[in-house]
Every structure is written in C-alpha cells, then in structure tokens.
C-alpha cells in the first residue's frame, strides 16, 4: 500500500506553533479599534503595516485546517486504501476521532462557563437570554461543537472553529474515498465549485470557509508531496537554495495578492490552494533553525489550550495588561505568557481530577465495541 509520508509529527507541531503566533498577531492587531486606547510603538513597522500583516495572517486557520486534513488522511490510510472498512469500523473511527479531538474542549468550555459566570455573569447573558430550556440547549450545542453550524450563541467567538473541526471529522472518510477512488482534483473542485453554487463566500468564520485548506492537506498526504519535494531538493544544495529562494519570493507575492483583494475575493485560493506553499516554506526554513524550531514545537504542543483560552484573556479580562504601553511585540509576549500560565493550571487541574485517565478508559471502551 502507498502510505502517505512527508510531514513528521515534529513538522506538524512546528506548523501549529507558527499558526499560533500568526493567530495571536491576527487577533491582537486586526484593526485599530483593538489597541487604539493604548500607547504602542510599532518599530520597525508602521501601524498600518502591522494591521496589514494581521489581515494576511488569517492564513493561520488554513494552516490548522491543512494539518488536520493531512493527519486525518494518514489516520484513515492505516486501515487500507479504502479507509475505514465496515460500517461498524467507521462508527468506531468517528467516535474515537471525535473524543480525541474534543475532550479537552469539553472541559475548557465547562470551566470557562463557570469562571465567566462568577466573574461577570456572561455565561447566563450569552446562553440563557430567553429561557432555561433554550439556554441548556445552547450550552449543549456549544459543548458538542455545533454552535456555528446551528448559528447559536458561543461564550467565546473564536470557538466557531470547533464546528469546522467537527465537519472535517465527518467529511474525512468521504473525502478520503473520493481522493482514492477518483482524484484529488475532483475533491478540490467539489469544494470550490460547491461553495459558489451554495452562495459564494460564506464568511471568514464560517465552518466551511477553510474546507479547501483541509482538502489540500489530504491531497498532499495522498500525493506524498513533501516527501517528493524533500527527495528532489536533497539531490543538490543548489536545488535546495533555489527552492527556498522561490518559496520566499512566492510568500511575498502571496502577501501582496492577499492585500490586493477583499476577504470575499479569491478566499478559497488565498486560504486554501495557497496553504501547501506556506507549509512547505515553514518546513524548509524555520523548521530547520535551531532553538526557533524548538520554541515553535513547544507552542505547537500547547496550541489547543492557547487557541481555546487566549481570547478571554486578550479581549475580556486582561486586555489592559496585554496591551500595556510598550512595543507591539510585547503584546504578543504578554498574551502568550499569560495564556500559557492559565493553560498550565488547566493541565494541572486535569491531572488532579484524573481527566485524561477517564478519557483513556472511554477510548478503550469505544475501541473494544
């Protein structure tokens, strides 16, 4: 069987680390209203350049979606060319993948609901505006990960991505079959043409917006894209140097292309078809730099908690600390440091209540069914 190869686990963590840094920049500086009341300096950039870079770094979501697609394709390929076999195997795969992907999210949502209610009553004002019954439904939808799909309230707006993650899990076996049975081009075409038939640009926080990036991840896994590139470039240092120069020049072009059009124009190209080039650039450059790659790998290992927690710190409870006077880079340093401290407390809490052990037992039970 032709197994997909190319991206190692370390590579995936480094990509997630880059995506986390891009996400932090994107969320901190996307528009002036987020920091206008604070006295920040932007040297060696101008304020407008920092905002433009933040807009470009929306690709962070595409990076996460790409890694998800790549990983799920590799997971499915372990079961053979057809993916999961029987209907029973498919149900087991769905259950296992969902639990692995969402177990930390479940606990974080519940903890945030309790803490936010104690701090400012925002849990009640978010979920329980109409009635207790509606509020409980809204809360269940949020925990399950379907709030963005059903357009129901979310305590934290950035949690919309969990609906996308759920859709990716649901579609992965189907897309795997299409790619194996027909071609990757067919899959990409379905995603791009289907979006236009359904009404065009769905929005920057829609659960289907980054589906092309997810499919590109599956496509690159199927084609062993990174393995092929590595084998080709390893033949000669000149090839490798030329490839890196080409990738960096392409990144500049993509940046200019991104800023030349609004979000609704060529969104599936900017946030989907271009993503493999960004990933290849990361793997060929920063992933090879000592210390920097270790730092990015560390951030990648904590990426789930950083993503799920940082918005509450940045925009709701600690904005004055995060955006305190100084250089704009310190904003990200403070945000990452404080979010890591909260994430560490979360992991310690999990250990105390033996949450991971409980999830492991649940997975064992599901696997044995």
| Helix and strand run | HEHHHHHHHHHHHHHHHHEHH
- Provide the structure class: mainly alpha
Q: What's the total helix number?
A: 19
| Model regions low in confidence, pLDDT < 50 over at least 5 residues | none
Q: What is the gyration radius calculated from CA atoms?
A: 21 Å
Shape: globular
Comma- or semicolon-separated keywords:
369 residues, mainly alpha, two-stranded parallel ribbon, 19 helices, 2 strands, 74% helix, 1% strand, globular
Report a brief summary of the structure:
With 369 residues, the protein is mainly α. It has helices at 9-29, 47-56, 59-77, 87-120, 122-127, 132-144, 147-150, 161-181, 184-197, 211-222, 225-233, 237-260, 267-273, 275-284, 292-301, 303-317, 319-322, 328-353, 355-367; strands spanning 40-41, 326-327. The chain has one domain (9-96, 158-367).
SSE topology sketch:
Layout: H1 9-29, E1 40-41, H2 47-56, H3 59-77, H4 87-120, H5 122-127, H6 132-144, H7 147-150, H8 161-181, H9 184-197, H10 211-222, H11 225-233, H12 237-260, H13 267-273, H14 275-284, H15 292-301, H16 303-317, H17 319-322, E2 326-327, H18 328-353, H19 355-367
Parallel strand pairs: 1-2
Structure description:
This protein is an all-alpha fold. It has a two-stranded parallel sheet with strand order 1-2. The protein contains 19 helices and two strands. It has helices at residues 9-29, 47-56, 59-77, 87-120, 122-127, 132-144, 147-150, 161-181, 184-197, 211-222, 225-233, 237-260, 267-273, 275-284, 292-301, 303-317, 319-322, 328-353, 355-367, and strands spanning 40-41, 326-327. Helix content is 74%, strand content 1%. Helix 12 (237-260) crosses helix 14 (275-284) and helix 16 (303-317) crosses helix 18 (328-353). It has one domain (9-96, 158-367).
């Amino acid at each position: 069987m032709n197994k997909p190869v190319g991206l190692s686990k370390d590579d995936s963590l480094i990509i997630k680390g880059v995506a986390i840094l891009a996400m932090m920049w994107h969320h901190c500086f996307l528009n002036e209203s987020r920091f206008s009341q604070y006295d920040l300096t932007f040297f060696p950039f101008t304020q407008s350049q920092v905002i433009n870079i933040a807009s470009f770094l929306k690709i962070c979501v595409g990076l996460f979606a790409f890694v998800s697609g790549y990983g799920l394709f590799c997971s499915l390929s372990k079961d053979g060319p057809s993916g999961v076999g029987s209907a029973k195997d498919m149900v087991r795969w769905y259950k296992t993948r969902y639990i692995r992907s969402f177990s930390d999210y479940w606990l974080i949502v519940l903890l945030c609901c309790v803490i936010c209610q104690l701090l400012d009553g925002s849990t009640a004002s978010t979920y329980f505006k109409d009635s207790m019954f509606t509020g409980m439904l809204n809360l269940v939808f949020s925990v399950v990960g379907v709030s963005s799909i059903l357009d129901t309230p979310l305590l934290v707006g950035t949690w919309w991505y969990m609906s996308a993650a759920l859709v990716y899990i649901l579609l992965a076996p189907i897309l795997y079959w299409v790619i194996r049975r027909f071609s990757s081009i067919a899959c990409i075409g379905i995603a791009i043409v289907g979006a236009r038939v359904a009404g065009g640009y769905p929005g920057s926080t829609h659960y289907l917006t980054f589906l092309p990036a997810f499919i590109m991840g599956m496509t690159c896994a199927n084609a062993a894209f990174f393995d092929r590139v590595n084998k080709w470039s390893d033949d000669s240092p000149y090839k490798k140097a030329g490839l890196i120069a080409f990738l960096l020049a392409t990144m500049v072009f993509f940046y200019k292309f991104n800023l030349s059009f609004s979000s609704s124009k060529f969104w599936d190209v900017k946030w989907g078809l271009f993503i493999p080039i960004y990933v290849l650039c990361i793997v060929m450059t920063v992933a090879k730099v000592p210390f920097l790659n270790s730092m990015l790998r560390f951030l990648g290992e904590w990426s789930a908690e950083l993503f799920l927690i940082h918005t509450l710190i940045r925009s709701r409870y600690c904005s004055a600390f995060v955006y305190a006077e100084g250089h704009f880079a310190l904003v990200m340093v403070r945000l990452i440091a404080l979010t890591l401290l909260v994430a560490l407390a979360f992991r310690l809490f999990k250990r105390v209540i033996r949450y991971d052990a409980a999830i492991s037992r649940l997975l064992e039970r599901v696997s044995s069914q």
